[in-house]
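Give me the fold.
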Amino acid sequence: MSFRSGPSPLLKIIAALALVLLAGPASAHLDESLTGGFLAGFHHPLSGPDHLLAMVAVGIWGAFLGRPLVVLLPVIFPTVMAFGGALGMAGVPMPPVEIGIALSVLLLGGAIAFAWRAPVWIAVTLVAIFAIFHGYAHGAELPSIADPIAFSLGFVLATGLLHVAGILLGLLNDRPGGEIATRVVGGLIAATGVYFLYRAIP
């Protein structure tokens, strides 16, 4: 591969990642009357960089791993996340949730950075475990939400779109310099996960 072709996908991935990271603060001015509805649910995954990065990373890793995981991982995450949400609503005791979420960002980013071609069952198990922590964190908030059904629908839709965004970024693997670019982004996600973990540990 030529050196000239390398930076192009890298710049595209970093620019896209920067845009999704900026989405949270930019939309923080939602009208308070929307709190608890569909738009609030849609906004919620975009407002927390830890959740956002984990969901995008699931899509990137799935695209890197190829079939069947490019389809399985984005389906398993929201499905198991709903189960985690039910645990959160029920108040079932869990290990420290923020640590689990930080580890999901760290380990998913690391899997991308090191181009880890995990077996199907390991990739599915890891993503499912991480999804429980993410779902639990949001489920614990749902009882105080004005319209939990509309909120949940918006949340699931935004989660799916973040997975799709990650898959589209991961598809750059097939372009010249694309694998290097996605691995660099994976390293940046993992480094952010280290920061989240530092903040989560008492």
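Residues 65 and 119 are 9 Å apart (CA to CA).
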